[in-house]
Amino acid sequence: MTGWAAVVLAAALAFSTSTRAEVPEVRFARQYSMGYLQFNVIEHEHLIQKHAAALGIPEVNVSGVRFNGPASMNDALISDSVDIVGGSPNGMFTLWAKTRGTAREVRAITALVTLPYMITSNDPDIRTIADLGKCKKIPVPSVRVSSPAVTLEMAAARLYGIKDYARFDAATITMSPADSTVALLAGSGDVNCVMALPPYLQQQMQHSNIHVVASSFDLAGGPTTYTVAYTSMRFHDRNPKLYQAVYEALNEATEIVRNDVRRAARYWIEDSDSKLTEAFVTAAGSGPGTEWTTVPLDTMKQAAFMAEIGTIKVKPASWKDYFFPEAYGLPGS
């Protein structure tokens, strides 16, 4: 082989290796409840790869990981350990407010679902929102920033005035939905109230000593978006075509979940290594008030409340402030 041929071959091999090394990657992060069925559908049906190929990206590596609450997920997103996060609007607001105007700014891609979760209790004396002061411990995914935690603060503000929004905060503790369900059923650790999320809510209601005190819609003053998908400006801007593939995949997955919850439930059971039946999970994902939709509903009310009490340091002027422009055509709020 001539010296020139050797140089050409080496360059070709280097280019080939570089090309393989630059296969784009999308790393999903979500929590343990059922608010992220779109992610299960996307991974099982290879929807990002499908839409990326249509946009001229022949190969994409897609992976997923679970977190117990929004704080650790947000840390992973900021450190570039994950790319797309599924969580409550409240967790996203916290990160958006901290990163706003920086190269690491975080915004929502789409909403995922509007659904009610419930505060449940094993104490027969706790029957209404006014009785929440009797709750000894109230597990939430993360204190102060998770949707259940903020919803409790909104309930306190509605009952006792905005200055008393933190009335129930001292009772909240960080615990996964699965562990909090075990604690409530066992009556252990002073846990006599739980912010119950599907499908753990439905599991709790199979026990005669557990009852519903109020829904999140009651506590927050109406239906609101439960979960959103969000990412960093860095991911959005670094590869616009890949972001577009993610956006289109989320839209297609939402249509699939809306029209075939059973199909998504089957994926969730497999991914969660759950012992629940397909029928049980399907019912949990299609209960009253549940709507799988990309349209953000009443998120501004939650953001304005968090700004008023100082949890976030800036009040958005519009829901479009914390969503990427691709979603601006939606009738959001």
Brief description of this entry?
This protein is α/β, with parallel strands linked by helices and 333 residues long. 44% of the residues lie in helices and 16% in strands.
Describe the structure.
The chain is an alpha/beta fold and 333 residues long. The chain has two domains: 3-114 and 225-327, D-Maltodextrin-Binding Protein, domain 2; 118-220, Periplasmic binding protein-like II (D-Maltodextrin-Binding Protein, domain 2). 44% of the residues lie in helices and 16% in strands. It has 14 helices and eleven strands. The chain has helices spanning 3-21, 37-45, 47-54, 70-78, 89-99, 147-160, 177-186, 200-204, 216-220, 233-238, 240-259, 261-272, 278-284, 299-308; strands spanning 25-30, 61-66, 84-87, 106-114, 118-121, 138-140, 172-174, 193-196, 211-215, 225-232, 291-292. A six-stranded mixed β-sheet has the order 2-1-3-10-4-11, sandwiched between helices. Strand 6 (138-140), helix 6 and strand 7 form a beta-alpha-beta unit. The longest helix is centred in the C-terminal third of the chain and has 20 residues, at 240-259.
Arrangement of strands in the largest sheet: 2-1-3-10-4-11
- Number of helices, counting only DSSP H or I runs of 4 residues or more: 14
| Terminal Cα span | 67 Å
Number of separate structural domains: 2
- Work out the number of β strands: 11
Mean pLDDT: 91
Helical coverage, percent range: 40-55%
CATH class of the largest domain equals Alpha Beta
Radius of gyration: 22 Å
List the helices and strands in order.
HEHHEHEHEEEHEHEHEHEHHHHEH
Structural class: alpha/beta
Question: How would you characterize the largest beta sheet?
Answer: 6 strands, mixed
